[in-house]
Amino acid sequence: MAFRFHIAAAILALVFTIVHASDPSPLQDFCVAVPDANAGGVFVNGKICKDPKLVEPEDFFFQGLNKPGSTAKPLGSNVTQVNVNQIPGLNTLGVSLARLDFAPYGLNPPHIHPRATEVLFVLEGTLVVGFVTSNPGMNMKNKLFTKVLNPGDVFVFPQGLIHFQFNQGETDAVAFAGLGSQNPGVITIANAVFGSDPPISPDVLTKAFQVGNDVIKKLQSQFWWDNNYP
């Protein structure tokens, strides 16, 4: 397992060297983010830059990505994010990564990353993945691009497009993702549409989905799980 983990890390490092980040290129060596709005400094990409004289190696460090996240939840999946909120030194650098763990038949449900393209590498197990194109011309359907991935396979999800990953096997699956933003963001479609606070008017959703009000009420009343964790 340790050897395979190092292979995954090496491939993601290679991806990072060739990715064209979606975030603006930095104009300085680094801008380590600090959470304290009263700390002074300059805002860059929504974060305050730490005084370079106070920057430490820990500002560029994260440990524990070799440990699986808990998949004991209804979706059967867990996404461990490693972005600017976990590594302050990523601020302005335009990259981040994540570990994805799947129980048998676990799902990372349809979602989008509004600020990043994603490159997925499968380390263990078999995943069915796919993304859907943006709205095409009149009387045309959105096209689904889908693929079955095995260990060693890589798949790209373009920025801002709805995509998913599903473990179709009877064993656990593990994947790692590189993303072209230090803060890619994630919008889980079902959670956002049916679990917003305050809720979207049923009048809007019944019209949009062409279903009865009772269906919308049922969907809005249930708890929508989030499988993304820092």
Automatic annotation (TrEMBL):
Q: Which cysteines are joined by disulfide bonds?
A: 31-49
Q: Name one GO cellular component term.
A: apoplast
- Name the protein family: Belongs to the germin family.
Pfam family membership, one: Cupin_1
Q: Where in the cell is it found?
A: Secreted, Extracellular space, Apoplast
The residues the record assigns to binding Mn(2+) are 111, 113, 118, 163
- For the keyword Manganese, the answer is yes
Q: Which PROSITE patterns match?
A: GERMIN
Q: Which CDD domains does UniProt cross-reference here?
A: cupin_OxOx (cd02241)
Q: Which residues form the Cupin type-1 domain?
A: 63-217
The residues that the entry says bind oxalate are 108, 113, 118
- Keywords assigned by UniProt, alphabetized: Apoplast, Disulfide bond, Manganese, Metal-binding, Secreted, Signal
Q: Which InterPro entries match?
A: Cupin_1, Germin, Germin_Mn-BS, RmlC-like_jellyroll, RmlC_Cupin_sf
Q: Which domain of life is it from?
A: Eukaryota
| Stretch forming the signal peptide | 1-21
Under Gene Ontology molecular function, one entry of this record is: manganese ion binding
For this entry, the protein name equals Germin-like protein
Its source organism is Coffea arabica
